[in-house]
Every structure is written in C-alpha cells, then in structure tokens.
Design goal:
CATH architecture: Roll
Number of domains: 1
CATH superfamily: CBS-domain
CATH topology: CBS-domain
Radius of gyration: 18 Å
Helix content: 25-40%
Distance between the termini: 36 Å
CATH class: Alpha Beta
Length: about 160
C-alpha cells in the first residue's frame, strides 16, 4: 500500500455532490508524508524508500499544494546524474516534481474519482478543500469504497441492460 490511511471506523457516512455515492473524504488518507519544494531530492528519495511509498504531495512555504513527487519523477535524477553530469547534492524536490497535479475535491463522490482513475494512469490524487491539501485518495481507497456500495445499486443498473 502506498499510503497508510488514517481511517476512523466511527466516521459518519455522508453523501457526495451527486447525492448517491459517498465522498472521497470518507476513504482518503489524511496522515500523509509530504515534502517541501526546497527539500533535497536525496532526502525525499530516502524517505520514500523508508516509508515504502511511491510518491507524495509537495507543499510550498504556505502549506499549499505545489506539486507531487513520484518514483517516476525521481528516476529522471538518475538520467541527469549519469548523462548530464549534474551534481546530485544540489538537486531539490522542486527540480523533479510534477507541478499543477490533477486534484479532486474533498466532496467529490467516489464514482467520479473512479472514473477519473480510469481515464488517467495516476495511482493517487491529492484531495483538496478550498485549495488546501486535505488528504490523498488512491485506487485502493476507491476499491474499498466500491465494496460498500449497496448491492441494490448494482441490481438496478443490471436491469437496464
């Protein structure tokens, strides 16, 4: 698992924007590893390895989401060091992160997010609330949500075929 969700079993079940499915806030991880724009890339890589995560949000000085850094982003460092003779010690997270990541809203429902996962190759999306990072939702989080969708919802859609 990429991120360890901080889930409360007593969390109330609320509805998302569409009113039919739960919002991602009921399934997102909130206890996240985050990085800073000016953090050394080596330190970020070490943290990802130690924490067994494949990526994390990057925050600016105001605590706002500035980007996302992933293992794939960090692989570019290997190329820069090997082929461009770039010094590893001078590299910062800001040099390798993905800027302007695709995000989802805290009240977006799990069906919308599942559809977004199907349309992209992303493994996780930062979840924002009024522009601030509130958590992160992964494909696995959405699969967990799918198990909670009432079977009546599935039977109704089967009748329409």
């Amino acid at each position: 698992m990429n991120f360890r969700p901080n889930l409360s079993k007593d969390k109330p079940k609320t509805e998302g924007k569409s009113g039919q499915y739960e919002p991602v806030s009921n399934y997102m991880a909130t206890d996240l590893v985050t990085f800073h724009l000016d953090q050394d890339i080596e330190e970020a890589i070490d943290t990802m390895i130690e924490q067994e995560i494949s990526g994390a949000p990057v925050l600016n000085d105001d605590g706002e989401l500035a980007g996302v850094i992933t293992e794939q982003d960090c692989l570019r460092l290997l190329i820069d060091v090997a082929y461009h003779n770039q010094m590893l010690s001078k590299s910062k997270v800001r040099d390798y992160m993905t800027e302007n990541p695709v995000t989802v809203s805290i009240d977006q429902d799990v069906l919308d997010v599942a559809n977004l996962f199907l349309k992209t190759n992303f493994r996780r999306f930062p979840v924002v609330d009024q522009g601030k990072l509130a958590g992160q939702v992964s494909r696995r989080d959405i699969l967990r949500a799918a198990k909670n969708i009432e079977s009546a919802t599935w039977r109704q859609s089967e009748k329409s075929f």
